[in-house]
Amino acid sequence: MALAVENPSETVQLRHHYNAPREQVFRAWTDPEALGQWFGPQSHTCKVEKLDVREGGDYQLRLIPTDENEDSDCGGNASADSICAGTFVSIQAPEKLVMTFGWIQNGADISDTLISVRFVEADGGTDLVLTHERLPTEEMRQAHAGGWQSSLECLETFLRI
Fold it and tell me: Strand (E) positions, the chain?
């Protein structure tokens, strides 16, 4: 299922290459134990509160600030836990995940945003393409781009272990 980007001006897209097989990178997004070890920006740790990986299944992740946490520009209190949640729209293992995304505690006031993550075999590893759509302001796009970039770097560290 190909999803077209409705409004490119409301979209953040990031690419990152991992020296790991596509199945391993996909599993890092869909296994609760793995996801809890890397998800979120470097300034936070993650507690997976719910991860029902099936089309129509829900997820909920608690991001807990670390002592090294810097000021947050994601719309919330940088010293308080944040909770993001959504529903899996499409799962094509190990090629693509599509899910809704929103902050339900201590984050930007957004709802019904959409994330798609593609996993492409490339150069002996995996190219990951993350697209976050329906971010209504430039400030939100920049904040989420920074958070996602940091999170994808955390994933790289996790995959090296």
Answer: 12-18, 44-51, 58-65, 82-92, 96-105, 113-122, 125-133
In sequence order, the 6+-apart residues with CB closer than 8 A to the CB of 98 are: 1, 3, 88, 89, 90, 91, 114, 115, 116, 117
| All domains of the chain in start order, with CATH | 8-160 (3.30.530.20)
Residue among 8, 84, 15 nearest 46 (CA): 84
Q: In what order do the strands lie in the sheet with 82-92?
A: 12-18, 125-133, 113-122, 96-105, 82-92, 58-65, 44-51
What angle, 0 to 180 degrees and rounded to 10, lies between the N-to-C axes of helices 138-160 and 22-30? Answer: 120
The pLDDT profile of the chain, 161 residues, written as one tens digit per residue, is 344 445 568 999 999 999 999 999 999 999 999 999 999 999 999 999 999 999 999 999 999 999 765 544 455 567 889 999 999 999 999 999 999 999 998 767 777 899 999 999 999 999 999 999 999 999 999 999 999 999 999 999 999 97
Residues 73, 144: Cα–Cα separation, whole Å: 9
